[in-house]
Amino acid sequence: MRLVSVWWWWTMLAAAVLAAPRLTDEEKRILRESADEADRHVRQVSHADLADYIKSGYHLITYGAVWCRLTQRFAPKWLEVQDEFDHRGWTDIPGFGIAKVQCAEDEEFCVDTMGTHDGYPDIRLYWGGELLEVYHHGFDKDSIIRFLEHIYEFVKQEHYQAAVPEVIEMVEKVESAKPSEPAPSREPIHDQLEMIQHLDDNMLDMDVVDEGTREKVLQHELEEYNVSRNLPFLELVKYRSS
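^ that's the sequence the OP posted. Answer follows.
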């Protein structure tokens, strides 16, 4: 009876995946093209350079995978955050930065680095090379900038306490030039972005971006479920997106 109930649960999960609203080919194209264009402008840190990049000061890192629809939608928003970060002169402050790490080619590295992984995009704050906080606030530009404003105050305070003359001069220069208006809007990353504004998290999360990857994840979850309950291994019900 227990085996039957588990099988029924996973059959219903597969059915839910199939029944979920599917993105159109046009929506998929716009998501990918807008993400690719945004990524051309976003500061990115390679896996090999990440440890060195975050070893000193405060750094906000976003992890994403190019095949992930949620990452694709978020890419232009992260670029807006970067534009505002630069507009405020924060790039001139030592030990304060933001960057993106691409995980698609080596997800094992990203999972090992993050320690825990609930999906992409993932944003984490590091201080002195150590994880300080997993970001759990809004993923819109304003929410992330408010979070960065809070971090900037810590950075500024630490620099004043260290009292390094040239760094103090740099901080005061940034403070005196603080803009009264937000960063000017750049030209739209994609001329059809309005066509994907209606897409919600559920539509993006349930869409099969890379069928092989999605199937592998579900099979792994099934295996973990079986192991935790000492059940015989069940094979995932195969499905194909319509």
